[in-house]
Amino acid sequence: MIVFGLEGTAWNLSAALVDEREVLYEKSATYTPAKGGIHPREASQHHAEHMARVVGDVIAYARENDLQMDAVAFSQGPGLGPCLRTVATAARALSLKLEVPLLGVNHCVAHIEVGKWRSGSTDPAVIYVSGANTQVLALRQGRYRIFGETLDISIGNAIDKFARTVGLSHPGGPKVEELAGKARRYIPLPYTVKGMDLSFSGLSTAATEAAKSHDLADVCYSLQETAFAMLVEVTERAMAHAEKKEAMLVGGVGANKRLGEMLDIMCRERGARFFLPERKYMGDNGSMIAHTGLIMFKSGIRTPLAKSCVRPGFRTDDVEVTWGPTNS
Ligand code: AMP
Ligand code: MG
Q1: Residues near 274 by Cβ (< 8 Å), separated by ≥ 6?
Q2: Which of 157, 174, 217, 297 has the most Cβ atoms closer than 10 angstroms to its Cβ?
C-alpha cells in the first residue's frame, strides 16, 4: 500500500509518498525567518503559499508512475496552530478528492516511528530533541511514556535563542556546533536536572551572559557539553528504569555529532546499543508522517473528518500505540 503524508507543524512544509519498504518520493519547502525566530503566522502563510506546488508535485509523481494512494496522513499536532490548520485543511481536501481515508498523526510519534524504521532499532529509549520538544521516552504498556522532559524551553530553542542573541542566524544549532569544534576550554554553566526533568532556559541565558566576556567558541562548546550531559544523564536513568537495551536519537538537534557521540559512549559503557537514523529523517519531514500513517492504517486506525481538528498540544503519551510488536 501507498500513503501520502503531509508535515507542516513549524518550519518545514513537506509531502511524501511511502510504501511498506521505502520512501518513494518527498518534496519540501522550508520557511526561513528573515530575522528572529519562527513567527507562527508567517510560517503558516509560507505553507499556504507553497502548498499547491509541494502537494501538486507529489501528486504528479504518483500519476506519472501510476501509483495509487490508499490514505492521506497529516501532522495533527503538536505544533503551531496556524501552521497545523493550513496543513489539516489541505489534507482533508486531498482525502475527499482522492476518496481515501484520512489519518491524523502525532508529530512526535512520527519522529520515533520513522527513526525505528530507518535505524533498525526495535525497542529503544528515545531521546527526542527538536526546535520545540525535548523528551526522553520509552514504550510501555501501549504508549510512548515520557520519562523526562523539559520544564521550560526545548534544547533546540535554547541553542537557537542563544545563537540569535550572539548574532548567529536562525537556526543556530549547526552554527553553534561548528564553533564548538574550535573551542579551547570549558566554562562552567548551570546544569539543571530536576528529578527526571530538564531545564534549559537558565542555561541559555547564562551562555548569553558568558559570551560577553569569553571567547564565543568556548561558550558554544560549554553550552553543548552542559546541555547534552543533562540529556545523557536522564536517558541513562530512563534506560535503567525501563530496562531498555537500546537508545535512539531523533529530532533536528539529533544531527549534532557531539550529542550522538556522548550517547553512544554512555550506551557502550552499559552494554546497550545506540541507534541514529539517517540525517534527513532527523528533522521534520513528510516521510515520517506518511510512514506512521501507513502503520496506523494497517492496524485499523482511521480519522473521521469530525475528529480531524488540529491539536496544538497533542502529547506523545496521548497516543495509543496499537501497531507492531511493541508492548513490554
Ligand atoms: P526540528 O524541530 O526537529 O525540525 O529541528 C530543528 C532544530 O534542530 C533547530 O532548533 C535547529 O537549530 C536544530 N539543529 C539542526 N542541526 C543541528 C545541529 N547540528 N546541532 C544542534 N542543533 C541542530
Ligand atoms: Mg519535529
Answers
A1: 246, 247, 248, 249, 260, 263, 264, 267, 268
A2: 157
| CATH 3.30.450.40 for domain 3-111+281-318 | no
* 324 or 128: which leads in pLDDT: 128
Give the pLDDT of residue 173.
97
**Where do the structural domains in the chain lie, given as residue ranges?**
3-111+281-318, 121-279
Rg over alpha carbons for the chain, rounded to the nearest Å, is 20
In whole angstroms, what is the distance from residue 260 CA to residue 15 CA?
A: 28
* CA 13 to mean position of chain CA atoms: 14
Q: 121-279, which class in CATH?
A: alpha beta
Q: What is the DSSP string of 60-82?
A: HHHHHTTPPP-EEEEEEESS-HH
Q: What is the pLDDT of residues 248-270, one digit of tens each?
A: 999 999 999 999 999 999 999 99
pLDDT band at 158 (very low <50, low <70, confident <90, very high): very high
Shortest-distance atom of ligand 1 to CA 224: 21
Q: Is residue 82 lining ligand 1, measured as CB closer than 6 Å? A: no
- C-alpha 92: how far from chain center: 23
pLDDT recorded at residue 325: 60
Ligand 1 neighbourhood includes 156 CB (under 6 angstroms): yes
